[in-house]
């Protein structure tokens, strides 16, 4: 931990280039509303990253708390039923219009596989430059869930998701993520995924997804 007055280690806190690569070209072809919502979730993600990196003074903490509380009060009367919400439901956006998981930017997708990049910003830091061990299964569930549900298949739920952490997954680096279908047996679908930092295997996972029966929540 950095003590007061000591400069943080920027090599841990910043990317090689200082860029936040998922903060652009986030549209798969959505409309103006999607574009605006994408800007909103990008701004929120940026705020969380910068908050995670910062050591603000007490005065700034108080003023940020007031600003955030005011924004929350503005949203209070706008709550709608789950099916009518926007957050996490915009499949026309690379980010899916959410900040819970890092954005998985898929460059190649077909019926049985998907691959692309993922970038864990400072918000997802566990410690010593490594991503939090809970954020990695989150990203695996995201990519495996999307693949399990792709190509007009009935909605699936994750029955198990086993993750092996093979070496640390670094924050602030563009990582490669791959997922593929291993087997299908009736309602059961087994998929696997990996995250690599160049040629280093960071983590891998296997998930069992079960197609829901009509009416099953
Ligand atoms: C799904 C709706 C989502 C709607 C979202 C809408 C918009 C969002 C837009 C886009 C989404 C984009 C991306 C999505 C990103 C992520 C997706 C995440 C998905 C999840 O993150 S979702 C949350 C976590 N998930 C749960 O909250 C599940 C809780 N759970 C259950 O809901 C039941 O448990 C269920 C349904 C899984 C099964 O229940 P069930 O009664 O239908 O079936 P049953 O138990 O009979 O199992 C059938 C056969 O699977 C075998 N089997 C079952 N479980 C096993 C296990 N663990 N290990 C080994 N084998 C297992 C049995 O042994 C049997 O095998 P066999 O047929 O050979 O006998």
Any overview of this molecule?
- This protein has 217 residues and is an alpha+beta fold.
- It folds into 2 domains: 23-83, no CATH class; 102-211, Thiol Ester Dehydrase, Chain A.
- Helix content is 27%, strand content 29%.
- The strands form 2 sheets. The chain has a 6-stranded antiparallel sheet, covered by helices on one side.
- Strand 7 (188-197) and strand 8 form a beta hairpin.
- The protein is globular, with a radius of gyration of 19 Å.
- It starts with 9 loop residues before the first helix and ends in a 6-residue tail after the last strand.
- Ligand 3IX binds at residues 89, 91, 141-142, 145-146, 155, 157-160, 187-188, 208, 210, 212, 216.
- It comes from Gordonia humi.
- It is found in: Cell projection, Ruffle membrane; Cytoplasm; Membrane.
- InterPro entries: HotDog_dom_sf (IPR029069), THEM4/THEM5_acyl-CoA_thioest (IPR052365), Thioestr_dom (IPR006683).
- Residues 128-200 form the Thioesterase domain.
Write the layout of secondary structure elements.
Layout: H1 10-13, H2 32-53, H3 58-75, E1 104-109, E2 113-119, E3 125-127, E4 130-131, H4 135-148, E5 156-165, E6 174-185, E7 188-197, E8 200-211
Antiparallel strand pairs: 1-2, 2-6, 3-4, 5-8, 6-7, 7-8
Bound molecules: ligand 3IX.
Summarize this structure as a short list of keywords or feature phrases.
217 residues, 4 helices, alpha+beta, disordered N terminus, 6-stranded antiparallel β-sheet, 27% helix
């Amino acid at each position: 931990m950095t003590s007061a007055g000591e400069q943080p280690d920027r090599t841990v806190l910043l990317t090689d280039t200082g860029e936040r690569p998922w903060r652009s070209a986030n549209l798969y072809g959505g409309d103006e509303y999607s574009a605006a919502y994408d800007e909103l979730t990008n701004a929120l993600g940026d705020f969380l990253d910068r908050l995670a990196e910062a050591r603000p003074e007490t005065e700034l903490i108080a003023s940020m708390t007031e600003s955030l509380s005011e924004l929350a009060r503005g949203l209070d009367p706008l709550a709608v039923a789950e099916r009518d919400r926007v957050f996490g439901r915009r499949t026309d956006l690379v980010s899916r219009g959410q900040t819970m998981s890092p954005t998985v930017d898929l460059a190649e997708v077909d019926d049985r596989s998907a691959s692309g990049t993922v970038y864990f910003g400072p918000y997802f830091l566990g410690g010593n430059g490594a991503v939090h061990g809970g954020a990695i299964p989150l990203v695996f569930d995201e990519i495996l869930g999307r693949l399990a549900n792709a190509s007009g298949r009935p909605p699936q739920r994750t029955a198990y998701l086993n993750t092996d952490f093979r070496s640390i997954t670094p924050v602030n680096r563009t990582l490669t993520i791959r997922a593929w279908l291993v087997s299908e047996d009736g309602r059961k679908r087994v998929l696997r995924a990996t995250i690599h930092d160049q040629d280093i295997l960071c983590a891998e996972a296997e998930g069992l997804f079960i197609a829901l029966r009509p009416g099953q929540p």
